[in-house]
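new request in #modeling-help
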Amino acid sequence: MSRRIFQASFITSVLVLLISLGLIFGVLIDNFEARLFKEMESEAAYISVAIEAQGIDYVDNFDGSEKRITIVDPEGTVIKDTSADISLLDNHKERDEIAGAMEKGVGRSERYSDTLMERNLYYATKMPDGNILRVSTTYGSVFVLLLGLLKPLILIVLLALVISFVVSKRVSRAIVKPINNIDPDNPAEGEVYDELTPLLRKLSAQKVTIDRQIKDAMQAKEEFRLITENMSEGLLVIDAYTNVLTYNTAALKLLGIEKITGTSALVLNRKKSFREVVNKALGGERCEEALRLEDKHYDLIASPVFEEGKVIGAVIVIVDVTEREKREQLRREFTSNVSHELKTPLTSISGFAEMIKAGDMPMETVVDFSKSIYDEAQRLTGLVSDIMKISEISEKPLSDEKEEVDLERVCKNVIKTLMPLADKRGIKLSFEGGKSIVKGSEKIITEMVFNLCDNAIKYNKAEGKAEIKICETEKDIRLSVSDTGIGIPALHRERVFERFYRVDKSHSKEVDGTGLGLAIVKHGALYHDAEIELESVLGEGTKITLIFKK
Amino acid sequence: MRNRFERQLEELNNEIITMGALCEEAIETSIRYLFDGNEELKELIADTEKQINGKERDIEVLCMKLLMQQQPVAGDLRIISSALKMISDLERIGDQALDIASMAIYVEKSGMQTRVHIRDMANATMKMVQYSIESFVKKDVELAYEAIRCDDEVDRLFNTVKNELVDAVANGEENGEALIDLVMIAKYFERIGDHAENIAEWVIYSITGEHV
């Protein structure tokens, strides 16, 4: 811009300079010509007077180098000429200046002289004797005059050029400087030209709009990031060439990847179900697949993204369903366990009953069978009542009124109840501890302690010991039941509190139990907000501690 | 033009990953088949093997197209030439998985497979194939070297299995057919290990330009 302004102003000044020089020259030439004529006029007057006084030969005093003097008689014949041979000259009557002089007494003209072959100025005057006196000079003398002016003129022109160069440069810089000084962040501020003000206002308004739009976009981006980063589901957005466009950290975590190394989604995972989901979604079809990675279960949900009827990519959501799968597994196991547990006694009962129904059986066999039927029925009753208890506990609202329960009394009652069983198996039951009060349901706590002790007796060795201990600390009350029994293998410790979970998978009747005892303890503990601790050494014994918070 | 070339290279990369994944699946299925004898698995392997062969042809065509149309140089040329070599190894892995499956059923019925260390060998081979393909997927030279190192373990297990089978013969094992099949299965696993090693070497070549 500065360059353009400089060029424009410099060219302008040079042009102005040249034009004015030309005009000045024109004026000067005119001026010089007028002066020449005047000079010639006074010279002619002077010569005419001299000729009158001294005769026509006076003219011979002039050598014709500076001015040419010609005398023409009224007929037009040249009778004297300082620069040419008169015999060669033709009649001058028709020449403008001569004709003018004959007519008006004075004549002037400017033309090429055929005689001297150059541009001449002529002045003619009629002398009193009737002859015409003509003075002429070459036009060149005008230029000689001007030539004298040339040297200083060139100097002046050069000086003017230099000045206009410098000034143009400065001016252009000065014009551009305020524009350069406009602050792009605040274009409306600062003093600039009025002509630019509307533009700057517009700029500043646009800047505000752009700033706002950028802010909105950033905010939207940040919102998107926050949402995707905080969701536990993995999110992948891919383009039509399976290149990953966006992903969240959950996706990487779920797929077990530390960082993305390539561009393709197949780099993240190449399992069959993942490939299928990607292919189907990019084929324009929404689909769901299950994906297994080591011990984790995922659901993949992929939806194609359309633009103008064409698939331009896909969104893949990865959901961790490991928990759900686990629960599903538990539920399946539970159902199969319940049916198994209920069916076994019923099969025996109906088998024995069928044989009795057929009749024809000795009495003692019938009695024996009846006893079996009775035992199985008892077992079934026990099972059903356990199932009812556990559902009662787990369905009991936690807000239920809680009473004060003395653990010592509960334990003593349980021991009293279980003493016969313990005696039968030759197991020594003991109790240690004093009065401790916890808030809760006496019925449920009794049930819990009963089941723990029952297990301690059942899963004990012959001549073993079972011990109930209550110890109270500042923070909590611990009730522990320990035995010297068979112990629980480490593999099963996690699961023994599940309903129907039996360490001995054969559901054998060697040790009669419903598989619900510890489940009742667990639900009871949940009801009382108590913790359960399990310590066990295989073959040496088990210790289960209930920790009630104070 | 350049853009299209890049696109085709990406496609090549994706196709090889897919082919590798198919090979992993084929071996995994054949191992499962060897140990639980589910007849459905055999069809699955046959199907996977077909897909692998199809992929090999697709990739070959793609590589040829790239070579003819784009005249790749330097790194790109290395990627394409090693891709061509890699797919033939992958294809062999697929074939051998199918071969294992074709014998597995007799071995599975005899119960011989539980008496020798073939499971360890299968797992070691599987791991090796996974490493080599993973190294291609992640362009991870270290992992490729790890895959190559695993080959020693596979070879060692092959010898173990062989010796165990020799002992079985010495002890008068009656089920001769299963025994021979098992030797061959072990050999196939060993061959798969060699192919996986080749793949890992090509991965290293395509990245660093050096032959191992």
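bot summary: Chain B is about 90% helix and 0% strand.
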